[in-house]
Amino acid sequence: MTITYDSLLSEITAPDGRDILDPATGELVGKAPFRSVDVLDDAIARAKAAQPAWASRSDDERKALLLQAADAIDAAAEPLAELLSREQGKPLEGPNARFEVGACANWLRATAATELPGRTLIDDGETHATIHYRPLGVVGAIGPWNWPMMISIWQIAPALRMGNTVVVKPSEYTPLSVLALAHVLDTVLPTDVVNVVAGEGDLGARLSSHPDIAKLMFTGSTRTGQAIIKSSADTVKRLTLELGGNDAGIVLADVDPKAIAQELFWGAFINTGQTCAALKRLYVHTDVYDDVCRELAEVANTTPMGRGLDEANVLGPLQNKAQFDIVADLVDKARSSGATILTGGAPDAEAPGYFYPTTLVANIDNANPLVSEEQFGPALPIVRFESVEEAVEMANGLDVGLGASVWSADLDAARAVAARIQAGTVWINSHGGVHPMIPFGGVKKSGYGLEFGVEGLAAVSAPQVING
Ligand code: NDP
């Protein structure tokens, strides 16, 4: 059965649902069914009932089903991308909607190919001990609105691979994308293995305190992560918390500004800056400061922003009004502090949608809120430094640490600086790229727990030692 945009939408919407509006135009995308806690409880009960049969399938069967799910996503890629573009705002083209849908299929395949077998720990004639990775039961997942499909797959795929079933609570801003993804997965997977319950207000708290949720995976704000830690305490739930951050990039004096400008730009502006591990504060050595600013402005001024369904665009709107207001407020504060707006900074109040122009802010103090607070949008502060010591101190000066990057022609010099940065990942001469076989997670208030690769599988399983 071929899935079209219209058939997809008719499967996942409800006449009495919540209006979901296109952030680029304000037009109705569809009505999302917003459910109550009772419906969530029922979904958890069904996931719990379905879990033993799912876990009792052989590893090869589960792998084969994940591969079939990837094929199903590929077959529905264009309608999924169109829906994602309309609901989230991100363009079809560039590292955006089609890229995100493609990443979902890739992640499923990579997860199917990742192995976490049990192994012998000691076998010395006296002691015989082995470790095995058992399913946890039902895994809960609360996802964000910036990469709603991809991050849901990051949560769903490893959980399924290890024999768990899943209940997903999508962001209230992007429920349709996740419902659509689940609908496509459901064409292949057994009933109730993946359950999505959309809603707002009390579902997240219920999921994170529910006794039948063994593990909760959350990607979102530190504030909500802290609330989840509290509400999961009574049930001693395992948690993976990916709480974003305020990634620093350090550009050393020996770079070729023109050569790195594109990579730097996309490190900061991928998904129009709405990315957990985007470059959010750029520290540039004074020797190359003016040249880096000029080259970045050149890229910014020639990178088209607009409605996502227009194939020419590669940057889109902010996903929601709240995020637009955060970005606008931070840029206004930077401007009134005397910082230089190199480009952007003046949204068109008359135009439809939550478009905030690509904005570069130079000559800004490290203490400015645009530097110290997470903007999560298309506005990059560029801070000048004179010594590497000073740059490292500024990079490490915040209480978050998801990613960071160091830019230099000298790989050894860059690696030496990278080792001093407090972040879960430090990229060299790029920023933000993730890979399904490379573990990813934060330090400090960016959260804890690793996703992806073997470590990601271990995080959704219960290690059991058999000693004897
Ligand atoms: P939040 O990070 O605050 O998360 C909202 C989600 O968490 C909703 O699904 C909500 O469900 C759930 N939730 C809220 N309270 C609780 C609780 N006590 N226990 C469990 N779940 C709960 O998202 P926002 O959209 O409000 O974004 C706020 C900021 O987070 C952004 O400005 C941005 O800076 C950052 N962010 C970071 C992302 C990242 O990738 N790390 C992604 C998106 C945003 P319910 O309504 O049912 O309570």
Care to give the gist of this entry?
By secondary structure, the protein is an alpha/beta fold. The chain contains 16 helices and 19 strands. It folds into 2 domains: 261 residues, Aldehyde Dehydrogenase, Chain A, domain 1 (3-Layer(aba) Sandwich); 182 residues, Aldehyde Dehydrogenase, Chain A, domain 2 (3-Layer(aba) Sandwich).
Look at the helices and sheets and give the structural class: alpha/beta
Largest sheet: 7 strands, mixed
Count of extended strands: 19
Find the CATH topology of the largest domain: Aldehyde Dehydrogenase, Chain A, domain 1
Protein topology:
Elements lengths: L4 H8 L5 E4 L6 E5 L4 H20 L2 H17 L1 H12 L8 H17 L5 E5 L4 E8 L2 E5 L5 H14 L3 E5 L5 H12 L7 E3 L6 H7 L5 E5 L2 H10 L6 E5 L4 E5 L5 H13 L9 E7 L3 H13 L19 H16 L3 E4 L15 E4 L6 H4 L6 E7 L2 H8 L4 E2 L1 E5 L3 H8 L6 E4 L14 E2 L8 H6 L2 E7 L1
Parallel strand pairs: 5-6, 5-8, 6-7, 8-9, 10-11, 10-16, 11-14, 13-14, 16-17
Antiparallel strand pairs: 1-2, 3-4, 4-19, 12-13, 15-18
The structure holds NADPH dihydro-nicotinamide-adenine-dinucleotide phosphate (NDP).
NADPH dihydro-nicotinamide-adenine-dinucleotide phosphate binds next to α8, α9 and α12.
